[in-house]
Design a protein that fits this description.
heterodimer, A: 353 residues, alpha/beta, 2 domains, seven-stranded parallel beta sheet, five-stranded parallel beta sheet, 18 strands, elongated, B: 251 residues, Rossmann fold, 6 helices, 26% helix, globular, mitochondrion (chain A)
């Protein structure tokens, strides 16, 4: 079934391409890969592409160098039925996510492929690269889209999520978007592996404009490998604020997260006080999360923090101050001392399966 | 070296915003406005670089209606040497801002351009990347540490990325956008506020700079985000565990 659909799609595309100079809709998705697989967030961009229009073949652009790139390309080719093509750019220039060569690459691929849309996820990777590529193509991008109302109408939060703005794109092709991955959840899809999936082709880099490439160099990445689930995609997030008082006390939050199989988040106050590294910050300027369960301990609930978590399904707040604004968004509130509540939770919570 | 800093006038971060009844936008009349927090950080960094002897002059730039001059004066009071105001009637999209900035860079020839990573009103996070592209300069976005090497003409920038901290080395001239943790902006002192009144501000219009202002985007409507249903206050940990297990089914 899937293979027949795929064939239908392919022939339709072929027809369109030969009949019209430009196709009605076709999307280029900028994907990230790691350790030989494409990242889960990148699939959210494919899901977003699907809601642009019915007939919308998706080309996935993967860049990097070496065998893990080609491994990721092969996996990507069979991971989602609407991916019709995987474009692979293999060069040392793409070994690190530097904006300069990557933006040039998008420009190159767009000029060849004439896509109607170019999509990336609005993580630090997409936000760094996509606007640069948009300026090279002389179009205005739309940041952090949370909903799509047709091929050229989008909804995005402004003012730290305190207002939702519906915008219509009236500019030239391509329409460039970064999408919030938590707003386009990926449902498990079974792809008929026998169909062979999408075609994989190498991008011809001989015409890659060298102009601004080489003016930046990657030095190092210092990351914290905690073994806990990724904050951006975790089902449960346990967050601590300033009230934890010290890095030592913050370990209680980590213990609780471990027990629940959850990711750990923090407020800006907790990061600034040095309790945890900054990549755990949730909020307007940190990460935006929307887990099934968000538990906030000692978090007052400033608008900048709420911007990053108020789309969570269930919010639990534990705070000594019954007037804390966090209680206005919490589904379940507990007014109490977190130094008593957390140990009790640790003791009484059921073991995770 | 000269450093150019772009600053934006926005609704103060502490203001609880109101949406206009006709849904055309957010109410900005009679609302407390101030310099975008990330722009303050950008300006602070430029001033620090100047104070360390690595730059001679800091030029603050803003775009928008005439009242944006207030923001420029704040920047001058913090320590910027002079200001440039590009008078534009309506809100400019980041691409237009980047095009205007490009023209100003051609006039002023700065060795470094520093911007905030995003404005807290439109939350776009685009302008710095776009101006870097138009100039063909390297970019260091979301910077939490900047070290300049005058001899080698490079900037080493620590960037806040999703996985942690990334360090890049950029050839100058370059564009840097600032993250919250880069520094703690200074307050303008009263004598400096007085002094700022006599510092020069140059005015341009987009037409004078030969920039065509097009948007490519049209705001259809601005609405309230959906309100969350009122929650309940529980009395004990046991009750909380019970609710999470049997009502919300999340653990």
């Amino acid at each position: 079934m899937a293979s027949r659909l795929l064939l239908q799609n392919l022939s339709k595309r072929h027809l369109l391409r030969s009949t019209f100079a430009s196709r009605s809709a076709s999307t280029l998705v900028l994907a990230e890969h790691e350790g030989g697989s494409i990242k889960a967030q990148s699939l959210s961009a494919v899901v977003a592409a699907n809601s642009l229009s019915q007939d919308n073949p998706v080309s996935l652009l993967l860049a990097g160098s070496g065998s893990s790139l080609h491994q990721a390309a092969e996996k990507a080719a069979t991971c989602h039925p609407s991916i019709s093509q995987v474009l692979v750019a293999d060069s040392e220039k793409f070994a690190y996510p530097l904006a300069e060569p990557w933006a040039k690459l998008i420009q190159l691929v767009q000029l060849k492929g004439d896509y109607s849309h170019v999509i990336a996820t609005s993580d630090s990777f997409g936000k760094n690269i996509l606007p640069r590529a948009a300026a090279l193509l002389d179009v205005s991008p739309v940041t952090d889209v949370v909903d799509i109302n047709g091929p050229r109408q989008f909804i995005r939060p402004i003012y730290a999520g305190n207002a939702l703005c519906t915008v219509r794109y009236t500019g030239a092709n391509p329409c460039m978007l970064t999408v919030r991955s938590t707003s386009f959840p990926v449902r498990p899809i079974s792809v008929d592996s026998k169909s062979g999936g999408a075609s994989i082709s190498e991008v011809d880099l001989s015409t890659l404009d060298e102009d601004s490439v080489g003016k930046s160099r990657f030095m190092k990445l210092s990351s914290q490998d905690t073994g806990r689930p990724d904050l951006g995609s975790a089902k449960i997030v346990v967050t601590g604020g300033r009230a934890l008082k010290s890095a030592e006390n913050f370990k209680m939050i980590e213990k609780l997260a471990e027990k629940l199989g959850a990711a750990v988040g923090a407020t800006r106050a907790a990061v600034d006080a040095g309790f945890v590294p900054n990549d755990l910050q949730v909020g307007q300027t940190g990460k935006i999360v929307a887990p099934e369960l968000y538990m906030a301990f000692g978090v007052s609930g400033a608008i900048q923090h709420l911007a990053g978590m108020k789309d969570s399904k269930i919010i639990v707040a534990v705070n000594k101050d019954s007037d804390a604004p966090i209680f206005q968004v919490a589904d379940y509130g507990l007014v109490g001392d977190l130094f008593e509540v957390i140990p009790e939770l640790l003791e009484k919570l059921p073991e995770k399966k | 070296m000269k450093i150019m800093v772009a600053v934006k006038r926005v609704v103060d971060y502490a203001v609880k915003i109101r949406i206009k009844p006709d849904k055309s936008g957010v109410e900005t009349q009679n609302v407390n406005m101030s310099m975008n927090p990330f722009c303050e950080i950008a300006l602070e960094e430029a001033l620090k670089i100047k104070e360390s002897g690595l730059a001679k002059e800091v030029v603050a730039v803003t775009m928008g209606p005439s009242n944006c001059v207030d923001t420029l004066r704040t920047g001058l009071a913090m320590g910027a040497d002079r200001g440039i105001h590009v008078e534009a009637a309506r809100d400019l999209v980041p691409l237009s801002v980047a095009k205007v900035l490009k023209k100003l860079v051609e006039v002023e020839n700065p060795g470094l351009l520093i911007l905030g990573k995003q404005a807290i009103d439109d939350d776009c996070n685009q302008t710095g990347q776009m101006i870097a592209a138009l100039l063909g300069w390297p970019q260091g976005t979301f910077a939490s540490k900047v070290v300049l090497d005058k001899e080698k003409q490079v900037a080493t920038v620590d960037r806040e990325v999703d996985g942690g901290l990334e360090t890049l080395c950029l050839d100058l001239p370059a564009v840097i956008t600032t993250d919250l943790r880069l520094n703690q902006p200074r307050y303008a002192t009263l004598p400096n506020i007085m002094k700022a009144k006599s510092k020069p501000i140059k005015r341009y219009t987009p037409e004078e700079l030969n920039v065509e202002i097009k948007s490519g985007l049209e705001v259809v409507q601005v609405t309230e985000p959906p309100k969350r249903k009122a929650g309940v206050i529980l009395s004990s940990v046991d009750e909380l565990i019970d609710k999470l297990k049997n009502e919300a089914h999340v653990i």
